[in-house]
Amino acid sequence: MPLSAPYTAKLQAGLGLVSETKLLLQLWEPGMTVPMLHREALESGQFPGMTARRLRNVVVECFAPRYLADDAAPARHLKQLLTALSNEELLQFFLLFTCRATPILADFIRQVYWPRYEAGDQQLHNEIAQSFIQRAIDDGKTAKRWADSTVMRIAGNLTGCCADYGLLEDGVRAKRRYQTVHLSSRVAVYLAHDLHFRGLGDTTMLRHSDWSLYGLEDSDVLTELKRLSLDGWFMVQSGGDVVRISWKYPDLEAVCRVLTES
């Protein structure tokens, strides 16, 4: 999604939706359209506590933008990886694809969550999220001004989504404690290859904003990739501002096959 895309309130249609996403990934098959997936989910009987309208919102407003973008590449890859990933790894993948589809969440994590974490804050208050949203509205990042009730609701959605993905403690509360987060090796391998296959040069790839969702700067990324090179994922050479990576695999599907075996 373009960086200039306006902030929306669509996050209120569903936060992390961790269990729902797992079920939908199991039901989804390549070539399945959004209406087909919705019908399959309805008929599966795996969402007994959810109305048909609510299930449609989850599929159309949340699952599809996050995991069926880019010709459904996220869904294809996660379906392949699903049984091999730990819960922590899965949450980090969900965070990546949700942030790519939801600029307000991505910017909140980059501009508020990590700076305050690095400054030594122990808790993140919903009031801080409200201030972030108010500034965004004043800066014209929404299509129109939001009512105060919408600001409060979306602020809770932002911190709630962070909790769903393991960045903050769980539970319904106005302030949540930070959780310790370390980017998993599998997610780092995937992300590096994903950005490479999107056509980014090696140095540009290190500086991509996706890494900052996990609190990493380009120097941190380089250190991580050098560590991963010891496991044979690629070969990294660096000197000054120049980084060259020798890539081993022809596409992301091949990378995912090896990740499921590692």
Number of strands: 4
- How far do the termini sit from each other? 31 Å
Share of helical residues: 55-70%
List the helices and strands in order.
HHHHHHEHHEHHHEEH
Q: What count of helical segments does DSSP give?
A: 12
Low-confidence stretches: none
- What's the overall average pLDDT, rounded? 94
- Beta content: 5-15%
Overall outline = globular
- Counting helices, strands and paired strands, the structural category is mainly alpha
Strand order of the largest sheet: 1-2
Q: What Rg, in angstroms, do the CA atoms define?
A: 19 Å
Largest sheet: 2 strands, antiparallel
Condensed summary:
With about 260 residues, the protein is mainly α. The chain contains twelve helices and four strands.
Structural summary, described in words:
The protein has 262 residues and is mainly alpha-helical. The chain has 12 helices and 4 strands; from the N terminus they run ααααααβααβαααββα. The strands form 2 sheets. A two-stranded antiparallel sheet has the order 1-2. Strands 3-4 form a two-stranded antiparallel sheet. α2 crosses α3, α3 crosses α4 and α7 crosses α8.
